[in-house]
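Data deposition worksheet. Section B asks for the primary sequence of the deposited chain exactly as it was used as input, without tags or linkers unless they were present during the calculation. Section C holds the resulting structure in token form. Section D is free text for depositor observations; keep each observation to a single sentence. Incomplete worksheets are returned to the depositor.
Section A, Depositor: J.P.
Section B:
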Amino acid sequence: MKNLIKSLMIFAIAISMTSCSDDDNNNQPQTIAQIASSNANLSILVQALQRANLVDTFNSAGDFTVFAPTDAAFTAFLATTPYATVNDVPVPILTEILKNHVLAEGFTSSELMTGYYKTLAKGTASSTNTLSMYIDLTSGVKINGGASNGGANVVLTSANILASNGVIHVVDNVIGLPTVVNHAIANPNFTSLVGALTGAGQPDFPTILSGTGPFTVFAPTNAAFTSLDAELQPGGIAGVPAATLTTVLQYHVVSGNVLSSSLTDNMVVTPLAGGDFTIGLTGGAKITDGNNRVSNIIATDVQASNGVIHVLDKVLLP
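Section C:
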């Protein structure tokens, strides 16, 4: 339905323009590439698309969502890299960065929902599962936690630019290829997990999990931590020694990029903490931990550049 509505809007614009001048080609609905080329504030993006040989892609038929960084956003991004201009960025790297700004279906801001979307980009962790993007609509349209987390915000005055082959939303930052840490920070349902990982007496988990990896993280939600706190009363989580909490957190991390399609019934998994837990697939994917407690896997395959996240409704205990 939403694609039909956008098509009708574009068709109506085209009819209106054609009635003014049938001979004026500029009145025809423009492609994403054409619109970007005519916007002086997106000149570096156009230069990057040319270098990555992606102009034809965004001139062709399709239905894309493009989050388009401004020239100021690209300039700020380049200042954090060894590269003076986009022409100095190696093409393979530049190509994946650009594809990380693109969804394979066109969405206006009113059609987006809070949650995960798949971009066209790939990191080094998986050759098949494209990178995930987390969009938060709590206040505006925030992508991957905003600029402070390697993401971006949609510039609301420059959103919903309709093209013949999709929608453009101008953003205030170049969106980096997210790590598992970026994804954990971006999703407000993981604030308890992030708090535990960065708590007093813990190793530098953010730096470790921002490394090459790849890592598979079984990530408990905030509700899972609340449940564990009640389970551990009277002392609760606060009464758990730091070293014990370290082991618990490491128990949720597995070496490698293990996608849900690789999980099998009764599969025994050995996490970084040692010990093991067992995957069950009967009646839905679940994990039986070292204490014979059962957690449900409620979301899978949140792909990062250096690993993948599966979401749990209960904290695992070794």
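Section D:
Residues 7-25 have pLDDT under 50 and may be disordered.
The first helix runs from residue 2 to 20.
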